[in-house]
């Protein structure tokens, strides 16, 4: 009955959005309340779960998304995005744009959390699409596939890193095996799959689009790349230094502070305000007006993501993920397939890749101690399952839909299907590796 109640809650959410045309934020709140009652959460605790879910998700994302939108707006209006797009196209050519986006997503995705990488790179996708009259989804999916796979498969991202520790796997081996699986996975889910998405009608946020400028009015190539990618440099630099530095070092707390994604975005915006704003003859009031417009454009995105966080928290508080995991534990299948299956089902029901992965870990852990499966491959199998079919209860689904401004149907045809391809191809790669290891 638990799984049935979850599906009823998600079905109501879908109907509210697609049939009644209700605002997704309101639909999420209604569905969250319904799920709370159906799954047996005491009525006096349902509102608390919703508030906790909204606050927990927005607490991590609001600074990153708002500051990222401001930075993206400045990168577009200053002409830096045009300069970056022209440089990339001169190197890769328009015919290979999907490969360029995939490579960019892979390089940026290894050190950065998915949401941070998304916010940082999405202006580049829209600039290339706008500049060269290419479909935005066709350009963006290869980059998003790379960002998603690195987030789900590879340490030092939170879920894979936690699984490595829990299974006693080797971080270096997991990363090496992961890269072997990741490369073909993102090629299939990225450039290859993107060829079938050219007809999808997307109208990206106008915040990240600007009229083409003349060559003389553009910032320099170094300034453009440096300012737009400064958050990447800062995050990677502080992470590397933090790993090498002893926690007893008096400078350690300061590096941890500067390395927080929210602080990185604030510092990066201030740097770009000078390098791409004041230095390019923008007045400070003019820049502040740009930032206000950018913040307004992403306000509804924040609310929709908050709604997804509310539903996720209600499902977590109800214990549904553990119930599903317990009911599937007795399946007589290959350990890697079992781990993938449990994770995939929890992911589809709950919407959180991290929750799905860590819940499965507690169930599968005895298999590792029994020596029946390579722990490094088990981390990758769970990582693949945790990306299975992102849909209405996943904040990533709405992040993609609202930024690209596509219909729910087209979001499922592109984003959700891409995530499913990633999960299935990833499992296939892990099983092939298992034959040789």
From TrEMBL:
GTP-binding in keyword set: no
Q: Which UniProt keywords apply?
A: Cell membrane, Membrane, Transmembrane, Transmembrane helix, Transport
Q: Which Pfam families match?
A: GntP_permease
InterPro entries to which the protein is assigned, alphabetical: Glcn_transporter
Q: Does the keyword Transport apply?
A: yes
- How is this protein situated with respect to the membrane? Multi-pass membrane protein
Transmembrane ranges, per UniProt, are 5-20, 26-42, 54-76, 96-122, 134-154, 174-197, 218-241, 261-278, 290-311, 337-365, 377-400, 412-436
Please give the GO cellular component terms listed in this UniProt entry. plasma membrane
Q: Please name the GO terms that the record assigns under molecular function.
A: gluconate transmembrane transporter activity
Q: Where in the cell is it found?
A: Cell membrane
Concerning its family, UniProt says: Belongs to the GntP permease family.
Q: What is this protein called?
A: GntP family permease
Per the UniProt record, the source organism is Aquiflexum gelatinilyticum
């Amino acid at each position: 009955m638990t799984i049935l109640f979850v599906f009823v809650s998600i079905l109501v959410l879908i109907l509210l959005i697609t049939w009644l045309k209700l605002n997704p934020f309101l639909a999420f709140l209604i569905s969250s309340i319904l799920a709370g009652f159906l799954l047996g959460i005491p009525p006096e605790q349902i509102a608390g779960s919703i508030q906790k879910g909204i606050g927990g998700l927005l607490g991590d994302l609001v600074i990153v998304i708002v500051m990222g939108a401001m930075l993206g707006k400045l990168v577009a209006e200053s002409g830096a995005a045009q300069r970056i797009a022209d440089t990339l196209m001169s190197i890769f050519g328009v015919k290979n744009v999907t490969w360029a986006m995939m490579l960019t997503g892979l390089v940026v995705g290894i050190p950065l959390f998915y949401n941070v990488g998304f916010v940082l790179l999405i202006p580049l996708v829209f600039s290339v699409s706008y500049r060269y009259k290419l479909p935005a989804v066709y350009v963006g999916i290869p980059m998003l596939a790379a960002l998603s796979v690195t987030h789900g498969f590879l340490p030092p991202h939170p879920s894979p890193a936690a699984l490595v520790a829990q299974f006693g796997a080797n971080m270096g081996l997991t990363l090496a095996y992961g890269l072997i699986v990741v490369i073909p996975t993102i090629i299939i889910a990225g450039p290859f799959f993107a060829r079938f998405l050219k007809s999808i009608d997307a109208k990206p946020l106008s915040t990240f689009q600007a009229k083409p400028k003349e060559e003389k009015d553009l910032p320099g190539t170094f300034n453009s790349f440096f300012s737009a990618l400064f958050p990447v440099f800062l995050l990677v630099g502080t992470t590397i230094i933090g790993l090498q530095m002893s926690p007893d070092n008096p400078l350690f707390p300061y590096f941890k502070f500067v390395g927080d994604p929210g602080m990185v975005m604030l510092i990066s915006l201030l740097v770009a305000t000078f390098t791409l704003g004041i230095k390019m003859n923008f007045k400070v009031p003019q820049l502040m007006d740009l930032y206000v417009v950018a913040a307004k454009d992403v306000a509804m995105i924040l609310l929709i993501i908050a709604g997804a966080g509310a539903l996720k928290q209600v499902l977590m508080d109800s214990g549904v993920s553990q119930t599903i995991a317990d009911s599937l534990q007795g399946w007589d299948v290959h350990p890697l397939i079992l781990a993938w299956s449990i994770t995939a089902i929890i992911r589809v029901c709950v919407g959180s890749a991290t929750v799905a992965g860590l819940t499965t870990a507690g169930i599968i852990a005895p298999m590792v101690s029994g020596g029946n499966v390579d722990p490094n491959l088990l981390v990758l199998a769970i990582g693949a399952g945790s990306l299975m079919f992102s849909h209405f209860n996943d904040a990533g689904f709405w992040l993609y839909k609202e930024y690209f401004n596509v219909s729910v149907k087209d979001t499922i045809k592109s984003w959700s299907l891409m995530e499913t391809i990633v999960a299935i191809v990833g499992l296939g790669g892990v099983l092939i590796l298992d034959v040789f290891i």
